[in-house]
Amino acid sequence: MSVELSDSTLGGGSPANGVAPSGGALVEVKGLAVRLPTGPKDSVQAVRSVNLTIRPGERVGIVGESGSGKSITGRTIAGLLPESKRVQVAGSVTFRGKEMIGAPAKEWRDIRSRRVSMIFQDPLSFLNPTMRVGRQVQEACRREGSASRQEIRDEVYSFMELAGLAQPAEVARKFPFELSGGMRQRVLIAIALAKRPELIIADEPTTALDVTVQARVLASLKRSVDELGMSLLMISHDLAVVAGLCDRVYVMCDGAVVEEGDTHSVFTEPKEAYTQGLLRSVRSLSSPTGELYADSERQSSSRGGA
Ligand SMILES: Nc1ncnc2c1ncn2[C@@H]1O[C@H](COP(=O)(O)OP(=O)(O)OP(=O)(O)O)[C@@H](O)[C@H]1O
After folding, report:
1. Best mutation site among 44, 62, 84, 201 for ligand 1, i.e. most ligand atoms within 8 A of its Cβ?
2. How far is Cα 18 from Cα 10, in angstroms, rounded to an integer?
């Protein structure tokens, strides 16, 4: 295996925020199978056999080729499968031990409003084009009790700064179309953080960005989830992204998990032929994004953010 990996490229075995990975699971997925309708009479077995655990404070990755079932697994955990009576879900998804498969829509809404935020690839589809971005972050903020305008503003700016928006007061006044792709994705991250969820599910969040901006946005995401003690589920076809972010990784193929383990072991000593093939298809895991983290952070701070 000729893949080059350095320890600095890898997420490492233990979360940077010091939360012990051996604690009780935040999310436990067991025997998950999802069948989706694809036409009036046709359907596809999108997920066939997934067992997955996310512990508090852990950063977990799912990798695999296009169509392997990564997104549908993430969407099932967030309760965001297509709305159709013909969607069939079997198995178990628990949040802190509470079964969610078959739970009423209200319980899922509760999970999404307080426990799980999802970040997708295309921020423009999720941002309100007619609302200033500061207001959109403000609406996501969970607050108990009353607060002054100044306190609310400070809170909004602090989430924007955590997401890597260096001049939050200026950015907050803008509409989404006035921002670059990288800044829009950072706004989406700020909105996700503002909900103070226990888990952020990021589905190819930076795939549409150029490689340098991608590295900066990912570094901000990593730092902010660690700082706030959140768990992260990173879904990506880009092994370098997962190598740079995640403590553990699940490799999916054809709707099933074929290999799992700590990121370093799986990416340096893959046991399954499928994982070995995936790794061979990547020229070097040290690039394009992994190795850029340190440099990009320096660039980011000198230029004021992507
Ligand atoms: N809304 C949908 N309706 C019907 N089938 C779908 C839907 N979304 C995904 N699928 C199918 O489910 C299977 C798994 O798709 P999924 O999006 O989870 O793959 P993926 O690994 O995330 O791929 P990609 O990286 O391309 O997004 C594929 O066969 C896909 O065509």
Report:
1. 44
2. 16
